[in-house]
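Continuing the batch. This is chain 6 of the set; chains 1 through 5 are on the previous pages. Same settings as before, nothing changed between runs. Recording input and output for traceability.
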Amino acid sequence: MAGISVSKISLMVWFVVCIGVETASVTNDKEKVIFILADGLRWDRFGQALPNFIKMEENGVKADWLNGVFMTMTIPSTFSIATGLYPESHGAVHNLFFNATSGEKSPSFMATMNYTEWFDTGAEPIWVTTILQGGKAGTILYTGSNVPIKGVQPTKNIPINLSGSCFGLPMGDRIDTALSWMTDEDFDIVVIYFNLPDFNLHSYGTEDQRTFDTLHEVDEAIGYLFDRIDEEGLTDIVNVIIASDHGHINSEVGKHVLLYDYINSSDVEFIVADYGPCFQLNPIEGKQDEVYTTLKSAHPALTVYKKEELPERYHYGNNERVLDIFGCVDPGWHLHTTIQGNDTFLISDHGYDNKWMVMKSSFYAQGPHFKKNHRATPFESVDIYSMICEILSLHPAPNNGSRERYEAIFAITGAANRSVSATVPICVFLFITSMSLFM
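Output for chain 6:
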């Protein structure tokens, strides 16, 4: 043994085992995240008592409300949640892809999901951050997941198709898929999009029983999720976060602002309108001031800005994609360029100024990282990205989130998972001290 005693060998073995056991413990018990985006779930749940959401309040965290980004459309809002960036920073500034230089415009929400250039602008969604740092991440029908971003696509993905038939996939099936990825393939995070209640809100409004029935379907899916987590023995490692992108408000019949009642379409070089309560346009050369001045005073329910006048609180105007003149109508109003005889109108809508309470969204969280029965003060939807990074012990990409706004919801402070950093120094100290006894 060349002068090394049995006692010293025993101490060496003990030291190696000490580190090995702790390291294995960290690996096996690392926390995971299931994030669900429930499209259109307003902060007040439209007055519905949803038992599984109430259980989440009792067993976890509920924010009074979540401050979503402007504009309160699905693609800008959900991509802000995924990246932690305001729309002016991530660039997906509308539900429709458009390029004013080329004149190209996406024909639909679903088609926009396949325009790589709309999303791959330097922003880094949470699944890309996870994969770049050695983890596994899955996405189910989530904004931006159809295309490579920074050359990275999700480890596994259920994509959004052009027909929209993908949204018929039952919520329970989405949950089963997510959990299979976690249990069978050790995924760190799965990001899931629920198109409900938004789809039915648009069709039936905020006060219709069919909308209420949909809300209870979402609630039942959340109950099913926690049952499945319990069955799989994942309760101690999976953190469930549920948020929404925006609220909803009924649009009143007959309350329309029609842009071409005030300006000539021939004075417009490029326009994005007839989609939600906001418009943006570039006038033809020489008509900029006339178009702006006319629209500025066109209607008391219409607020119009030059791009450079957009309020700083919007975090929207500082992007080259935003057009020269921008405007929105007040909540409850419709905005169109003109009305054709066969036009139909949404009964409830979103996209309005994010200052209105009817546009505020929801946040719930439950799991080992979160306090129990904790009511959180409102924070920002852009905070969720860095929140998830902390839970997964990831280094976040540059983002607009602020830990100060949400840190009070955590039951665990500092690093998200148990770390060898605290145990290893103790092992080293005891090892050196013990060895010195035999020297």
